[in-house]
């Protein structure tokens, strides 16, 4: 089979139906359609509106703390260079310069607030008075509860009952911020079920409610608007890289749960075809086991949460539970734009295991004084391999999308039991 010829631009999607190639779209109940269409209309108007952009920029700067720095990870670079010297037996040839885009320094400790800020300003524009969200690990719930507190809007967060137990510090954070956390006991009582419950709430409370989705998935226009709000990561990085090095990086990398931090970094680089782009999924205990969260490596196309994309499913098309040591990567699907970028071959999707992420969590802490979240630790695992294959005058940019303070107890447990 021959590959379709590449499009003139990778940045024009989605089309009018919300599709990226055969992925995306809006597979929702008839009752939800008017809501989705109203949101699309409002978003189209907002993105052309100078006041909206100015307001968002204001809060990103003064509340979120943007721009986040671009940082040359010198000791990690040296580490890769000496490993490459050993492996090749040739000194001074291999080992790219590694840079971090430091989105872990944002308020609330990750990239999620970029998107929540954008969506809550949109909700305000639409005159909505009640915010709902769903959360798995609780990170998106915390970011949503944070912006709701800031703007004085009531916040209801649906969370699988299993996750409520597993993630009690985040449940407490959300409550402290004034949110109501509703445990969901249907299905397996995890993220997938919480998302279904949030959609049900939305249909029932049409007039008052705005649903803040936390990753670049869901029915159109969510994948597009989440991508746009997260693209601030890549846009800043491009400018900062020109300042630091006078050119673009050779490789950019990010970890993938639903794919929002990754698409935010990748999207501004998609048409710079000399830049190689790599997304890293969570391989859990291995993509050849039942316990992983790698939807591209181990899934196939289907429909979930309003869009067509790659999903973890069994032979009957039942959605399978995802597994990762990192709760934030524990999603059985991937945003539809990534599914399309995979099929066009523009972006390469790789994976890293729980074990590899644990190693990187410790290595980065020790070498750089930066405790990374377990999520970007997955991307780091593939980044240090990649850097060792690259020449010394090349540049690799990695999105440090979250900090690891939230993970220290699960890492402590994992290190003790192994
Ligand atoms: C939630 C989260 C992720 C996964 O979500 P994406 O939409 O794939 O970005 C990754 N890293 C961190 C730190 C997170 O909190």
- How far apart are the first and last residues' alpha carbons, in Å? 45 Å
| Number of helices, counting only DSSP H or I runs of 4 residues or more | 16
| Rg, Cα atoms, Å | 20 Å
Strand content: 15-25%
Count of beta strands: 14
Given the helix and strand composition, which structural class is it? alpha/beta
Question: Which class of the largest domain in CATH terms?
Answer: Alpha Beta
Can you characterise this structure?
Helices cover 44% and strands 16% of the residues. The protein is built from 16 helices and 14 strands. The strands form 4 sheets. It has a 6-stranded mixed beta sheet with strand order 3-4-14-9-10-13, sandwiched between helices. A 4-stranded parallel beta sheet has the order 7-6-5-8, with helices on both faces. Strands 1-2 form a two-stranded antiparallel ribbon. Helix 2 (50-64) packs across helix 4, helix 4 packs across helix 9 and helix 9 packs across helix 11 (260-266). The protein is globular and about 65 Å long. Bound molecules: pyridoxal-5'-phosphate. Pyridoxal-5'-phosphate (PLP) binds next to helix 11.
């Amino acid at each position: 089979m021959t590959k379709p010829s590449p499009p003139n631009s990778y940045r024009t999607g989605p089309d009018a139906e919300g599709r990226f190639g055969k992925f995306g779209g809006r597979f929702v109940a008839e009752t939800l359609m008017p809501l989705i269409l109203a949101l699309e209309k409002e978003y189209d108007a907002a993105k052309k509106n100078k006041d909206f952009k100015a307001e968002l920029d204001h809060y990103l700067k003064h509340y979120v703390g943007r721009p986040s720095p671009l940082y040359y990870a010198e000791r990690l670079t040296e580490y890769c260079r000496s490993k490459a010297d050993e492996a090749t037996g040739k000194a001074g040839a291999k080992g790219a310069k590694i840079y971090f885009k430091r989105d872990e320094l944002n308020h609330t400790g990750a990239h999620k607030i970029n998107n929540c800020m954008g969506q809550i300003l949109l909700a305000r524009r639409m005159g909505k008075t009640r915010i709902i969200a769903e959360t798995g690990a609780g990170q998106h719930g915390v970011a949503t509860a944070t912006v709701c507190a800031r703007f004085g809007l009531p916040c209801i967060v649906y969370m699988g009952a299993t996750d409520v137990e597993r993630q009690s510090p985040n449940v407490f954070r959300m409550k402290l911020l004034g949110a109501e956390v509703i445990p969901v006991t249907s299905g397996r009582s995890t993220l997938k079920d919480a998302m279904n419950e949030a959609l049900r709430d939305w249909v029932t409370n049409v007039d008052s409610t705005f649903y803040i989705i936390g990753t670049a998935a869901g029915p159109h226009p969510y994948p597009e608007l989440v991508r746009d709000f997260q693209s601030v990561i890549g846009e800043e990085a491009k400018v900062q890289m020109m300042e630091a090095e006078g050119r673009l990086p050779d490789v950019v990398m990010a970890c993938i749960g639903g794919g929002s931090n990754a698409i935010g970094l990748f999207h501004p680089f998609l048409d710079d075809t000399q830049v190689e782009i790599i997304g890293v999924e969570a391989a859990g205990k291995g993509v050849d086991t039942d316990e992983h969260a790698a939807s591209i490596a181990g899934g196939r196309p289907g429909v979930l949460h309003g869009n067509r994309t790659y999903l973890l499913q069994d032979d009957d098309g039942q959605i399978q539970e995802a597994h990762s040591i990192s709760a934030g990567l524990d999603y059985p699907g991937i945003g539809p734009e990534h599914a399309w970028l995979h099929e066009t071959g523009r972006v390469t999707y790789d994976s890293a295991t729980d074990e590899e992420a644990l190693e990187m969590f410790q290595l980065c802490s020790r070498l750089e004084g930066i405790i990374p979240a377990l999520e970007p630790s997955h991307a780091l695992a593939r980044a240090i391999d990649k850097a060792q294959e690259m020449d010394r005058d090349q540049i690799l940019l990695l999105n440090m999308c979250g900090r690891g303070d939230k993970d220290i107890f699960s890492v402590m447990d994992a290190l003790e039991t192994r």
